[in-house]
Amino acid sequence: MIKKIREAVDYIRKQTEQEVKTGIILGTGLSGLVKLATITHKIPYASIPHFVEATVEGHHGQLLFGTIASHPVVMMQGRFHFYEGYSLQQITFPVRVMKVLGIERLLISNASGGLNPEYEPASLVLLDDHINFLPNNPLTGKNLDEFGPRFPDMSQPYDQKMNKKLQAIAQALKIKLHEGVYAAWTGPCLETRAEYRFLRMAGADLVGMSTVPEVIVANHMKLPVSAISVVTDLCDPDNLKPLALDDILENAAKAEAKLIQLISKFFENA
User: How far apart are CA 53 and CA 80, in angstroms?
Assistant: First the structure.
């Protein structure tokens, strides 16, 4: 793994020597951030050694280097999921690479189903904790001692300093930013009514199919991380209806404007 990471970093550094301080995984709700950034380099995943392919529609599959409000960033335009058939080590490989490239913190966004009855479609939820229901862990196997300990602490998986800053900005902008617990589910099929009930009883406010593996690896490397979920649909097991894709896309678009505004302000004060 260490050899593969070095080969990927060496290739990237032959394309650009740009300094990077923040890594961003452009999930649902953050795709428009690319328009606000000054992009200096685009590197397709297919050309980077040991990167896998993003197979989900809307995930472009390239590493973007640039600046946001003069702050140097590297952005993953397209992420990987367990349901695509990849191992959790493959899914989190880019996070390892970004850390070696020099990032000091990581920002993640994702789409999720809202389990908490207080949420509405197009709500934004800042993750405070998570539950890993995936059938494996990205740290399984030989520990990468160069990056972190065998048994990393996960008592506060999401960085409190970053979260407090995001909450303060949201309050100043009059943007409602909930806090909640995210459950990682395998997918790709959506959950049943009984599974939604189970997840609620387990203490989850949200359910999605990403993010947790990347957060585990970030914590292993002592890399501060924050994540924001866009609630694209409500998961009420007693009033469940078949999902309409148009509704999901509409809710994602509504949330995007708020999320872009929030993250843009975050970098102005970086």
Answer: 8
**Residue 269's pLDDT is what?**
74
**Amino acid at residue number 125:** V
In b/e form, how buried is each residue of 226-244, taking b as 16+ CB within 10 angstroms? bbbbbbbbbbebeeeeeee
Does the pTM surpass 0.85? The reply is yes
Angle, CA of 190, 133 and 181, to the nearest 5°: 85
- How many domains are contained in the chain? 1
Q: Is the pLDDT of residue 22 over 80?
A: yes
**CA–CA distances in Å: residue 65 to residues 177, 184, 218:** 28, 28, 20
**Which domain, by its residues, includes 22?**
2-268
- Which residues on adjacent β-strands are paired with residue 225? 106
pLDDT digits (tens, 9 = 90+) for 121-147: 999 999 999 999 999 999 999 999 999
Cα 137 → chain centroid = 16
CATH code of the domain containing 240: 3.40.50.1580
